[in-house]
Amino acid sequence: MKFNRYQHYKTYNLLLFIVIAFWSAWFVSSNSISNEVFLKKNSWLWLYILTFSSLLALGLTSLHFLRGPGFTESSMALFKTFFWTFLLCNLTLWPVPQVWIYLTASREINDRVEFTLFYPGPSKGKAGNCPVGIGYYDRDLQRYVELCAEKDQIDRKARKLYVQKCVNDYGARIWRYHFIR
């Protein structure tokens, strides 16, 4: 049996393609829920992500140091290892609290709240801004919430906003709202 020396590269490229496909799917799916999930005001979940990312980056940097290059290039190589590991880990884990809230929020709450309209609405990232923003203070989240709306959804004679949401200990997922006269 003849050994194909390029088989290793084919397997590596296939594995790399699968990892990048899953990573891209993770970002697209987590970005699609970011407009309807809100964290509580004083949430410390981001601190856990930064701590985990720092510890992982330190661990991989120490492994690199133990295997590492010569003394003359080690400080810059170690810095690059720490920086890129920390950055990629943060980018990957940053939407985890929102996804966790989206999946585990189970207590339904219905609120009637006073609202304000503002033009243009909140940012939608690279797609620009929403045409109209709806803002109100949420008692459960203990913070001001901004929702995105289209101009044809707005009822100018409405006095209150009826908000339906699912809540857990870390935040809420607002899944429906409409205007009340």
Structure description:
- The chain crosses the membrane at residues 12-33, 45-66, 78-103.
- Keywords: Membrane, Transmembrane, Transmembrane helix.
- The structure is a single chain.
- This protein is of the alpha+beta class and 181 residues long.
- The chain folds into two domains: 36-104, no CATH class; 106-180.
- Helices cover 45% and strands 25% of the residues.
- It contains four helices and seven strands.
- The protein has a four-stranded antiparallel sheet, covered by helices on one side. Strands 3-4-5 form a three-stranded antiparallel sheet, with no helix packed on it.
- Helix 2 runs antiparallel to helix 3.
- The model has no long low-confidence stretch (mean pLDDT 85).
**What structural class do you assign from the helix and strand content?**
alpha+beta
Q: Compute the gyration radius: what is it?
A: 23 Å
- Report the count of strand segments: 7
Please give the alpha-carbon distance between the first and last residues.
Answer: 80 Å
**β-strand amount:** 15-25%
Arrangement of strands in the largest sheet: 1-7-6-2
Choose one word for the global shape. elongated
Q: What kind of sheet is the major sheet?
A: 4 strands, antiparallel
Helix content: 40-55%
Calculate the mean pLDDT score and round it: 85
Number of separate structural domains: 2
Catalogue the unreliable spans: none
Structure, briefly:
The chain has 181 residues and is of the alpha+beta class.
List the helices and strands and how they pair.
Blueprint: H1 7-32, E1 37-39, H2 45-67, H3 71-93, H4 96-104, E2 107-113, E3 116-118, E4 132-138, E5 143-149, E6 160-167, E7 171-180
Antiparallel strand pairs: 1-7, 2-6, 3-4, 4-5, 6-7
Helix pairs in contact: 2-3
